[in-house]
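Bit of a strange request maybe. I'm writing a small parser for structure token strings and I need a real example to test against, not something I typed by hand. Could someone generate the tokens for this chain?
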Amino acid sequence: MTKTRAVVLALLVASFAFLFKDVVAKLVIDWGADENYSHGFLVAPLAGIVVWRSRAAISALQVRPSSAGLLLIFVSLATLVVGTLGLDLLLPRLALLGTLAGSILFTCGRERLKKLGFPFLLLALAIPIPAIVFNQVTLPLQLFASRFGAAVISACQIPVLREGNVITLATMSLEVVEACSGIRSLVSLLTLAVIWGYLTDSPSWLRWLLAASAVPIAIFANGIRVAGTGVAAHFIGPAAADGFLHTFSGWMIFVVAGVLLLAVHRLATWLVPPVPTHSEAGGVNTAGVEPVTVPPGHSDGIIARSLVVTACLVVTASMLGAMTRTEAITLRQPLSTLPRNVGAWESLDIQAFDARLLAVLRVDDYVNRAYVAPGRPWVGLYVGYYQSQRQGQAIHSPLNCMPGAGWQPIGRTRVTIPVPAGGGAPENHAEINRLIVQKGLDRQLVLYWYQAHGRMVASEYWGKIYTVVDAIRLNRSDGALVRVIVPISTEDAADEQAAEQAALEFVSVILPALSQRLGG
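Reply from user aminoacidic:
Good idea to test on real output. This should exercise your parser:
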């Protein structure tokens, strides 16, 4: 029977590895490419070490298989299929953890799964959050670090001007980009806090305190780093804001943040001396624990349930192999073929984006122009097209990009515009976003929406949901962001109304040509 169990276990592991090999491979690639999650190379082996050290304590628990695990497996595998076909990278990675947890629950029971809670938490911390959420988190951190840094620099009697995430000194300008937002140190410090709480056998309340304190400590430490970089750049020169000194300051600040985290732990244990409870510590010390012998009937049950899980994994792999196919190329014409003269509007040439900006946007095609018409303010048009969003490419929302450039939203509503249906069909209508943004004394009106497959959507979250549906239904996940900008000359309400009228007029004449190039 032991040999049979070994063969079944080998089949289960092999089928799991085959089904999730692409998910794991892409995750490892992201750990190497994204420094925000490079700690994954440390966290994943550490999770394995924790499981190995707890093996005797886990074996000592009773085996009580739960049929609820099969439901969790089904839900996780369905999530894997949906995520692979249509969304981004998060769902398949969550499906990996869900399938693994469901398999343990279905074959071994709740007690053993609960004992493995900490390794699962470590693996969850190594999964990058989706870009649609990441952008929402990094922007406030960028702006906070910029404001904090500018305030400290000004307190040091150094002339400084801040616009958005750009800090201007007398000798140079510092841009607090995503890498300097503090998200990297925040994620790493949070992971360190979780590991530290486990290794020190801390009680539950202290673990939660360490995890919670990691957030303000990381934000404060990053603000100090930005301020220190500005002060050093003023006295030493631009070299202090780049190269080795900049990288070294990041490491030093993280060390300081780690010391502050340790101080929180020491202070908490001094104020409230914890009573060590070995069960809360996750069972690190397993000396003298005798493993439970599985009764013969239970052994047969484990083998049968393992075969059921293996069958589910094999069927899912076969389904994905049949359903996954190369996406169709959908852009009918390059965006550069958009007419330069539409109605009364004539386009002006604008310098193309540089390589650094294109690397951030990751667009497959784009157009960036200004249009002018007699008696009307100029209109800026930007269209960014993404041929596929299956591999984590995310459309950058103006709500993230514009504040990063110093344009602060001061008004946000939505407007409804007519959309010609063509072919003699009745006219449709679509809802789009309307923003008023301000930078110093300058104000602009912004209209933007997401367009794909003959559909115009204002919400980026609904746009993502439609991406899933269309990827399954049409094998397409392409889409585009369309943004129209018009300057507002004064704070007079009449000027704002004139800007909106010009923007809506321009949208009405450019939309038919734009829809032809975006496929509907």
